[in-house]
Design the sequence.
């Protein structure tokens, strides 16, 4: 599968290619859009119990942004990482967890707002007894994510 010079291997999409992936969004093309979250294909993390739905990216808007909904299963965490070329915002919709940000830990619950400046090292954890869901926004979708632990890949939906 190749698109915009991107080569997916065995249906897997590396994290840095989500911004350009057209097959994971509801509608491609510029202009206004209205759609339901249930219509968005769900990606599964290859390495852990996270799930992602990309709501907006370059193929779906023509703009330099990346917006998704991310869900962690109970006790699930992402790899320690940071971003180059973008700031990172998320808003917790449901569940409980914690954020490790530059060595300090912060509790997460529904209604928590997080702004992570470019280059700040972070890791998100869902509590052992709770899943965690948040809306995630990158100020510039085409950016570099530097993983300090296992690099992240997403399993593309079956067609």
Sequence:
């Amino acid at each position: 599968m190749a698109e915009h010079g991107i080569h997916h291997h065995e249906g897997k999409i590396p994290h840095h290619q989500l911004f350009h992936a057209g097959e994971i969004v509801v509608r491609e093309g510029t202009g206004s859009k209205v759609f339901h979250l249930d219509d968005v294909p769900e990606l599964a993390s290859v390495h852990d119990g996270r799930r992602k739905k990309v709501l907006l990216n370059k193929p779906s808007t023509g703009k330099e942004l990346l917006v998704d909904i991310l869900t962690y299963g109970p006790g699930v965490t992402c790899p320690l990482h940071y971003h180059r070329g973008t700031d990172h915002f998320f808003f917790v919709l449901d569940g409980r967890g914690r954020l490790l940000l530059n060595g300090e830990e912060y509790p997460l619950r529904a209604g928590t707002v997080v702004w992570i400046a470019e280059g700040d090292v972070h890791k998100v954890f869902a509590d052992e007894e709770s899943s965690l869901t948040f809306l995630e926004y990158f100020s510039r979708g085409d950016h570099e994510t530097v993983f300090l632990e296992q690099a992240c890949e997403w399993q593309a939906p079956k067609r």
About this structure: The chain has a mean pLDDT of 87. The longest strand covers residues 88-101. The first helix runs from residue 58 to 61.
